[in-house]
Amino acid sequence: MENDLLLKSIEGLLDKKLQPMNDRLNVIDQKLENLEKIQNQIETTQKSILNFITEADTEFMKLEEKTKDIDKIKKVININNVK
Fold first, then answer.
1. Eight-class DSSP state of 83
2. 30, 6, 26: which is closest to 18 by C-alpha?
3. How far apart are CA 83 and CA 78, in angstroms?
4. How far is CA 28 from its chain centroid?
5. Distance from CA of residue 62 to its chain's centroid?
6. E strand intervals along 1-83
7. Is the pLDDT of residue 83 over 80?
8. How many degrees, rounded to 5, is the angle at CA 43 between CA 39 and CA 48?
């Protein structure tokens, strides 16, 4: 019985002494969670930007091919006009 009382007293003292440290750890955990959320948002934004750039690049390549085709057609038209 005396040992239990002594043990509970020691636990209470340790809890009191460690409470500020536990509070700081909780704050750090919250900050880490916020950083993880921000990191996920950044990753999502990067993926969106990459998708946009990929789509834009594809469209520019299509436009370049059409421009080449138009240039070929212009050459053919000019050759026909020379005759």
1. -
2. 26
3. 9
4. 21
5. 30
6. none
7. no
8. 145
Which tens digits make up the pLDDT trace of 12-45? 999 999 999 999 999 999 999 999 999 999 999 9
> DSSP 3-state helix, strand, coil percentages of the chain (rounded to 5)?
100, 0, 0
What's at 48, amino acid-wise?
Answer: S
Residue 1, SS3 per DSSP: coil
Q: Residue 41 and residue 49: Cα distance in Å, rounded? A: 12
Sign of CA dihedral 8, 13, 19, 25: negative
pTM: 0.61
Angle at the Cα of 58 (from 69 to 41), degrees rounded to 5? 165
